[in-house]
Amino acid sequence: xxxxxxxxxxxxxxxxxxxxxxxxxxxxxxxxxxxxxxxxxxxxxxxxxxxxxxxxxxxxxxxxxxxxxxxxxxxxxxxxxxxxxxxxxxxxxxxxxxxxxxxxxxxxxxxxxxxxxxxxxxxxxxxxxxxxxxxxxxxxxxxxxxxxxxxxxxxxxxxxxxxxxxxxxxxxxxxxxxxxxxxxxxxxxxxxxxxxxxxx
Length: 200
Hints:
By secondary structure, this protein is an alpha/beta fold. It has 9 helices and 7 strands; from the N terminus they run βααααβαββαβαβαβα.
């Protein structure tokens, strides 16, 4: 039995932190997992900048409300879900993801949780499990699923490499160069074709 595991940001929706960087005028917040392999280091950096500028959860959620799925993402996801099981594995947070899941037709998502103070400031975060994407893929395999995975960032490599088939989607030149063994594509049409080939 197959299950497709997809990254969220950069694959189905634009990067939330880049959108917030543009909305807030803080260029440092453009840094994502495409640039920084160490997720904890990245999040500590982000939270420090938010504190420095007095920005809280509601400020980010206002930006998220304006974010739309990438053109063709909803149709791609609907087509894929009609053919096989699909699970979104993301290092984002439930407080960020819900409005985006509504726009994508409420697919299943496993992600993390923010700690938010009474004043609305983000005080920390809970990672669901260490190496959450790889750990989840291995857990799915342990209960009888064959996984097919796709993502664009450093934190997607583990689940892609551990799966029956794995694909880079709209990844960076550096990641593609470092991993020439991984098929890479730029369009949903091509990604769907790769996944269908792996489902046979």
